[in-house]
Known about the structure:
The chain is α+β, with helices and mostly antiparallel strands and 268 residues long.
Amino acid sequence: xVAFPPCKINLGLNVLSRRPDGYHDVSTCFYPLPWSDVLxxxxxPSLNFTHTGLNIPGKEEDNLCLKAYKLxxxxxxxxxxxxxxxxxxxxxxGLGGGSSDASHMLMLLDKLFxxxxxxxxxxxxxxxxxxxxxxxxxxxxxLGNGRGEKLQGxxxxxxxxxxxxxxxxxxxxxxxxxxHVIAHQAAHSIQEIVSKPVGLWRKLLINDFEExxxxxxxxxxxxxxxxxxxxxxxxxxxxxxxxxxxxxxxEIDLTSQFRDELCWSGWL
Length: 268
């Protein structure tokens, strides 16, 4: 069985408060992008994990796909599998690629082993794997609250807009980004802002991580400024970085401007 886990961008990201458990309450709008990894799961005599594409750093046992398998195996009598991941979405980019892989792994296992899990059950498992994993069980824009796992549907479509996504050669540590962000209550809700025309988002729709991340990594601010300079209606960093995106009302080729930094572009 094969799945194509997509990535996401954040349309606005407000860090509202620090919680007693050490996490932060946030507000954001997740928007899925049709740029995906490839995940294949097959029955196998023994558990085996292989991968191609982009390099996947870290220990194999820490991979979220394997954690998803072991999580379900702790509750169900799953037989061994052959898991292959072709990695296309860059890691540490604020695009949620690893979270998407994990959630689609849960859905593949549900189908492969005919577990009959409800969306509520899948959501429970996904939320233990990562704050934004639950979003990837849905194929639609969603408002995210709490740690990002509390989701609410939203009527929002960027169809007809052209998006350019840029991943500079910069790594932003999520934990470090959270340690420098200043939590505060936003003046306007993200739900209210994204209901307005895209052309009005520039001064209203804020990613709270940008201020401190841009100070440490000026290149990221430069990329955002260049996207606006080439006519973006709205440009922002996704998540805690380091990817940035620009939303345009027409197709534009910036390959020569960003060279190998350009990750993905296309109509939404």
